[in-house]
Sequence to fold (228 residues):
Amino acid sequence: SQQGEEDPQALSIQEGENATMNCSYKTSINNLQWYRQNSGRGLVHLILIRSNEREKHSGRLRVTLDTSKKSSSLLITASRAADTASYFCATAGANSKLTFGKGITLSVRP
Amino acid sequence: NAGVMQNPRHLVRRRGQEARLRCSPMKGHSHVYWYRQLPEEGLKFMVYLQKENIIDESGMPKERFSAEFPKEGPSILRIQQVVRGDSAAYFCASSPVTSGTQSRKTQYFGPGTRLLVL
Fold:
């Protein structure tokens, strides 16, 4: 079954607005990671948050993790057209392999 | 430091042929992971290898698929007798050898190989 499930499935916003994407998962994790994928390209690692962390920042990105609710959110502030991409959350368990959700398609209108 | 390299970037095969996908990890990385992405879906784990060892192949189909990561050279994902359902993007990721729990280490992804089976 899908470990990470993102919502919404698609998000369309105006440039300059903030984008919030959510991810839920089912089993215990060591860490949760967010990736970006531009159309037809590979994945770019955005940020990793460990299971004992609650919030992490990187530039315009803010990630939260709530292990009691088994959920995470990715906030992109002051969005740009170049942020248009698919975003995936992935959980890592004890055996290192990543389990991905189906992704969120973000469109930022200029 | 070059990133993870994969080749070919695009591969077209006819049903029944063999497909060989190559992955060169980042310099200093000796852990390699292969993932498959079907259209409109997320990535699915296939196999995790270290040099000359398969650590976890729980995501590999039981037949026709094999993977190796020799002491010298790239990691190879081999698909024998390809079928149309094998059409997908295949991504390789690598992570470094460090002390501490491996599962905490970031995986760096290559650009992928897009396999099309006619």
